[in-house]
Write a structure and sequence with these properties.
alpha/beta; UDP-galactose 4-epimerase, domain 1; two-stranded parallel ribbon; 7-stranded parallel beta sheet; Rossmann fold
Length: about 350
């Protein structure tokens, strides 16, 4: 099977790249080359910006693929560009969407592919949904062989999956834990969430590649393990070898408290909601699929890798100071009420 991955080195796609290479797939990556160090042997790279459509068209001239998968298409114009580039050039085009396109708030915490699609708050999700709508229209009108994949919160060896973090990732939360400082958990920490290790995601993703039953379909790929956010933060602290000092703060308050990132999308319309994914459709399309990396196992591997690689420990003083201000404000409010 000849496969072209657009991207191929991110949190989700790096595991797909690794597993495809292990299987001896004829694999080509198209990316800008910023993270290509350490790619598996035998992977061919076309170094280009997919946004430069004319140049990419010249570089791909005469080439065809069994599967093309785009991990870095975010807006409708990206999907339209891919359709122009790959219509007639591939037997299957996989668009990596997001599980955040499902109805917010959900009418039922159990999510299937039949759940209504609607996220009126988060522009990221609205753009992903617009991409899906364009691509499925091309499938209906011209037979463009699209498969839509919807990952949820997927993590790997380079990132600790948490809910309340800053612009530079979640390391600063881990550092607060290591320093014995309190960390913020949204709400009361009892909402349900699903975290998926990228190696498990890759197994499901590869099972959909070249799968004729997946053409014209949308499928989410997640673990079957459900955790509360309290359990998630406790497990991360345990992997770091420290005791968790949690401060629970209402999600609405966090979104309104001038956060360093826009929590209206990432929190209020996503991580603050309880969701449990039903993977029946994936398991029907990919018989034998099972996510085998439990979170407590996966996060120990993640933490070990981050602690061994200082370049992954990106500090975020802006977020750190904001956490201190939020916690201090809550403490001051409690003192005021007691007086």
């Amino acid at each position: 099977m000849k496969v072209l991955l657009i991207g191929g080195t991110g949190t989700i796609s790096s595991a797909v790249t690794r597993q495809l290479a292990e299987r001896g797939c004829e694999l080509v990556l198209l990316n800008r080359g910023s993270r290509n160090d350490g790619l598996p042997e035998g992977v061919r790279v076309i170094q280009a910006d997919i946004g430069d459509e004319e140049r990419v068209a010249r570089l791909l001239d005469g080439q065809t693929f069994d599967v093309v998968a785009d991990f870095i298409a975010f807006k409708p114009e990206d999907a339209e560009r891919d359709w122009r580039l790959f219509a007639g050039r591939t037997k299957q085009y996989i668009f990596v969407s997001s599980a955040s396109v499902y109805q917010t708030p959900p009418a039922d915490y159990r999510i299937t592919e039949g759940t209504t699609l609607s996220n009126p708050v988060w522009e990221y999700s609205q753009n992903k949904l617009a991409c899906e709508e364009f691509l499925f229209r091309q499938y209906r009108e011209s037979g463009f062989p699209v498969t839509v994949v919807r990952p949820s919160h997927t993590y790997g060896d380079r990132n600790i999956p948490l809910a309340v973090s800053g612009r530079k990732g979640s390391w600063q939360v881990a550092r607060r834990m290591l320093e014995g400082k309190p960390v913020i958990i949204h709400g009361d920490g009892t909402s349900l969430w699903t975290l998926t290790h990228n190696s498990d995601f890759a197994k499901g993703f590869i099972g959909l590649m070249g799968n004729i039953h997946a053409i014209g379909e949308a499928v989410h790929i997640t673990s079957d393990e459900t955790l509360t956010w309290n359990q998630i933060y406790e497990t991360v602290a345990d992997a770091l070898g420290v005791k968790l000092k949690a401060v629970h703060v209402a999600s609405e308050f966090l979104a309104a408290a001038s956060p360093p990132v826009d929590y209206r999308g990432t929190l209020l319309s996503d991580k603050a909601l309880s969701v449990v994914f039903d993977n029946t459709k994936l398991k029907r399309l990919v018989p034998g699929f099972v996510a085998t990396t439990r979170f407590d196992q996966g996060i120990r591997q993640t933490v070990k890798n981050i602690l061994e690689h200082p370049e992954l420990q990106v500090e975020d003083p802006e977020f750190d100071a904001w956490c201190d201000k939020v916690i201090a404000a809550l403490e001051a409010a409690k003192r005021s009420i007691r007086e």
